[in-house]
Amino acid sequence: MRPSVDAQDPEAVIAATRHWLTRAVIGLNLCPFAKAVHVKDQIRYVVSAARDAQGVLLDLERELQGLAQADPQAVDTTLLIMPGALLDFHEYNDALFFAQRMLKSLRLEGELQIASFHPDYQFEGTSPDDVENYTNRSPYPIWHLLRESSIDRAVEAFPEAEVIFERNEALMRQMGVAGYHAWMAQTAEDEDGANDNAIGGAADDAQEKR
Q1: How many CB atoms lie within 10 A of CB 197?
Q2: Do 130 and 169 meet the contact criterion of CB atoms below 8 Å apart?
Q3: Arithmetic mean of pLDDT over the chain
Q4: Which residues pair with 46 in a beta bridge?
Q5: Start-to-end C-alpha separation, the chain
Q6: Is 156 exposed, middle or buried, given 0-12, 13-18 or 19+ CB atoms closer than 10 A?
Q7: Nearest to 81 by CA among 62, 106, 56, 61
Q8: Which ranges of the chain have pLDDT less than 70?
Q9: Are 202 and 27 in contact (CB under 8 A)?
Q10: Please, is 4 exposed, middle or buried when counting C-beta atoms within 10 Å of its C-beta (0-12, 13-18, 19+)?
Q11: What pLDDT score does 206 carry?
Q12: What pLDDT score was predicted for residue 62?
């Protein structure tokens, strides 16, 4: 169930986002690179008050420039969370096009990247209810701002990075939609995401909770 926008303040929005990060992204090991920056407290959480694409893009410009200027040891990556804007996935995708143009216009292409997450995320060629879409489904529309240098280091440390997507798809198909929701309904064991799981373990645990 999608969190209510109007009923939640920024702290609640960040709490829901952190739960998704620790329970899904780290807990299911969807991104092997996420735990390190989380444990080191190097993630900046920003809740946009914008209600339309124009407002979100203004927030994005500020956060891109801020991340580029920040000390990587203090802020390695930024999650720009949009609880009140771009709730329609097609509108979100349209805005993402302009976000990528902004990255280029700020001359930050090659230095920063923008990854996308949305409550209704849908990969091309899939149906809305296909379980593999849940690898990129978040409680709110999110733009994840990453440093290219950090990505390069992570890929060096994880030489099989190209198989992550395939592994995640396999995990989601094994869990199923109901199994994924059952997994997410549980509290993370700790806020450091210590509940990392291999594919079989996470899927089996989710099936037991169904």
Answers
A1: 17
A2: no
A3: 87
A4: 80
A5: 16
A6: exposed
A7: 56
A8: 1-8, 157-162, 189-210
A9: yes
A10: exposed
A11: 46
A12: 97
Place of tokens 């949305």: 118
Residue 33's pLDDT is: 84
The pLDDT of residue 150 is 83
pLDDT at 80: 98
Residue labelled with tokens 């899939």: 126
The pLDDT, as a whole number, for residue 196 is 41
The pTM (predicted TM-score) of the whole model is: 0.86
In the numeric block, the tokens 């899904």 are attached to 24
Residue type, 161: A
Contact 80, 59 (CB under 8 A): yes
pLDDT of residue 161: 64
Give the pLDDT score at 190: 56
